[in-house]
Design brief:
CATH class of the largest domain: Alpha Beta
Number of strands: 9
Largest sheet: 7 strands, mixed
Bound molecules: (2S)-2-hydroxybutanedioic acid
CATH superfamily of the largest domain: Bacterial extracellular solute-binding protein, family 7
Number of domains: 2
């Protein structure tokens, strides 16, 4: 009798242990399932810029719309990757979202240099229309065979020249100076035609290059000039609006294709809202930065006149001809004629 009850006791104990183990295992499995999908979003500018703020807005909306199933980690100011590394990291899926300046895609598709063709877009609105129209969308799609999906255009604004040597009013004022460029043949050619030199330098190293006089000048939006404190190491600003400095939001194709449909939809919605926010903010922040720069009194401003502009356009004639065959007439015309 005693032996019988002992056997029952052992059987119950074994059953209890098996049950406890199964319960514990399935709990762990359940926990694993709720682990969020992590999106690393890396960029090179300050958090206070349109791109920096829009990346944070995307994070907020993406986490909210997926009910926490997605976690977005934003890394600003080249903290995680600089200019060149961020593209390589995206292709390797070491980072899932980046928003590089369009110019930096020249190695993947030289047609992106449309943004650098001097004095091509008529206005801020024209650039936006181009990006949202068929030519802009075709450019975004062109990255798919490189394992990249172009999700959105985020404009920043028009570029202006700064330098430490003298006021730049006419093409001849550029002679003998050296400028930092982002990358690509158009920018190199632009300075060559002005009789100036150029050097490609990652964004994170520009301030030091200006300070050390590795280069005399650079070209950027009011907001980048302001938030990078270039006024500390530059003396003259030419309000030229000669080219564009805008962004494309990119993701890794393998990562994107692996997402469940409902998550993809929520992320697309979050990005659409963050894009609207970015567009509005880019105008506001560039205006505010222009005022800050003026108020600081550290930079001497010069505004190109219509005559100055014509003189530059004349100098750039060979550039327009050469790059029409590289970029394609269709894209050039779409940019030129956008209103
Ligand atoms: C630059 O390199 O000048 C800019 O593209 C940086 C940025 O992302 O705005």
């Amino acid at each position: 009798m005693l032996k019988f009850s002992r056997n029952i006791f052992i059987a119950v104990l074994v059953l209890f242990l098996v049950f406890a183990l199964v319960a514990c295992g399935s709990k762990q499995e359940g926990e694993k399932k709720t682990e969020p999908i992590v999106i690393k979003f890396s960029h090179v500018v300050a958090e206070t810029t349109p791109k920096g703020q829009a990346a944070l807005k995307f994070k907020e909306l993406a986490e909210q719309k997926t009910g926490g199933k997605v976690k977005v980690e934003v890394y600003p100011s080249s903290q995680l990757f600089g200019d060149k590394e961020e593209l390589e990291a995206l292709i390797a899926n070491n980072v899932q979202f980046i928003a590089p300046s369009v110019t930096k895609l020249v190695g993947l598709n030289p047609q992106f240099q449309i943004v650098d063709i001097p004095f091509l877009f008529k206005s801020e609105e024209a650039a936006l229309k181009f990006y949202q129209g068929p030519a802009g969308q075709k450019l975004l799609k062109s990255l798919e065979d490189k394992g990249i999906i172009g999700l959105a255009w985020w404009p920043n604004g028009a570029k202006h020249f700064t330098n430490s040597k003298r006021p730049l009013r006419r093409p001849e004022d550029f002679k003998g100076l050296k400028f930092r460029t982002q990358s690509g043949g158009v920018l190199e050619e632009q300075f060559k035609l002005l009789g100036a030199g150029s050097q490609t330098i990652p964004f994170g190293e520009v301030y030091t290059a200006l300070q050390n006089k590795t280069v005399d000048g650079q070209e950027n939006t009011f907001n980048n000039i302001d938030t990078q404190k270039y006024a500390e190491v530059q003396k003259y600003l030419t309000v030229s609006g000669h080219g564009r400095l805008d962004y494309v939001v990119l993701t890794n194709k393998t990562f994107w294709d692996s997402l469940p449909e409902d998550i993809k939809k929520a992320l697309e919605e979050a990005l659409a809202e963050a894009t609207e926010y970015e567009i509005k903010l880019s105008t506001e922040l560039n205006q505010k930065s222009m005022e800050n720069l003026k108020k600081s009194g550290k930079l001497e401003f010069y505004y190109l006149t219509p005559q100055d502009r014509e003189a530059f356009i004349k100098v750039f004639e060979p550039l327009y001809k050469k790059y029409e065959s590289i970029i394609g007439k269709e894209i050039m015309d779409a940019a030129r004629n956008a209103e």
